[in-house]
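Quick start: what a row looks like.
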Amino acid sequence: MEGDFPPDSSDDLSQRGSVASSATLSRAQDVLIYLFGDSAVHLTVEGLGSVSVQELGRSVREALHVPDSAQDAFAFWLCSPLLDLQLKSRHQPYKLCRQWQDLLYRFTQASEEDISQDEPYLQFRRNVFYPKYKEQQVDDEGVLRLLYEEARSNILTGRYPCDPEHWTSLGALSLALEEGTGLDDTQFTTTVREKKLSSFVPAHVAMGSGGLFSTLRGKSSRQAGLEQNLLEAYRKIRTSAGNAPEPTQLLHQYLNTCHTLPYYGCAFFMGEIDKPGQGILQRGKHKAVNVGICLEGVYVMDVKEKHVLLGLRFNELSWDHSYPEEEGDSHILWLEFDGEEDGTPVNKLLKIYSKQAELMSGFIEFCVELKSASEGGAAADMDGEASSQLPAEQDGSSKNGRGGRRGMLRRQSSVLCSRVHSLNTISYVDNGKEIKRLKPKRAASFFTRQQSTAAYSAVQVTESLEQG
């Protein structure tokens, strides 16, 4: 997502009605629940003002023929160009819509004018807390197609950064799902050009870097190369298919490829980080980032360049959230991880400036506890109830690995690999009793830690919404 939570490129908000637009709530009202792929479920609801997500869920799952075995795969989200929030089963969408402006003031940097004009819509999409291993067991074509449409949108908009071999194979699979595997080379080329290349590969790839010196000839040559790569990938599907493959096979192939991306299924937050210093003129400048959080870890991504800056599993990080101390200061999410400085093992701190830092901190804490409970054999409730009181203590088996220090994360050519060297971090060495700072100083309060057996910084957050 670019900027402050813009909509997906497929969204046409001018045609979308708000759940909160009904003036009379006592009688039956028409409600549209949007899906990815430009479709929606039309419901007639009585008592709209007090209807809950749980009640709406039964009606939507029935309309979409979602089997009971996959009922936890999806959740309701309130979405707008400025903010996405996953709702809980007890939430009442109409009442949350009435509070939408308050939520925008609290969790976004949007201007008063943008906030006054923003209008949310209700969307039925993947539940952040639905584990990949359960998704891989789904065989229902309708459920798979819902998951596919969402994954495809995230690939094409660059929300899921991926390498050429990923988006080439995914684009070919999309074409096979839409047009079948029987197109010859000429039909393939005609179809791709009619539907546009951006329907099959990420928009930033299809458009290229552009710029003042970009020529039409250069653009044409690049697009021809992309078409050829897509064609080769499509040929592999066509020749390996033999008999025409079932749609479920192609859907599974698409989703299984997406599952190799560590941030598949993440909830996304917007923030900024410090740019590395490049002289006096560069000081104080920030870089826009997406922060993806899922059951596996935290991923910081460059919004402009569409690649991962930092990827950490929960056993590789500690975190904290600080509130503004003075007017003009920012909420900050602090991520601490192992690194290296001139050959010396150090602890590194990354500052993420965001009004959603509180949401992110609470979200990380819940994911850590949920994962710990699941690994311990506890029956984890997967409906997104982040307010569940799970045990805060962590036993020795869930330590964050500080005893055996990891090697420094190194930059590689893949967009999936961390680029720690490009981050403006604070580094320090913990000698057990005192901390020796190697980079800019900060208030000692953050570094003064009480001795605790807990593996993570426990942050108490009362906010009960999940961010997307």
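That is the whole record. The CA atoms of residues 2 and 450 lie 39 Å apart. DSSP finds 13 helices and 15 strands in the chain.
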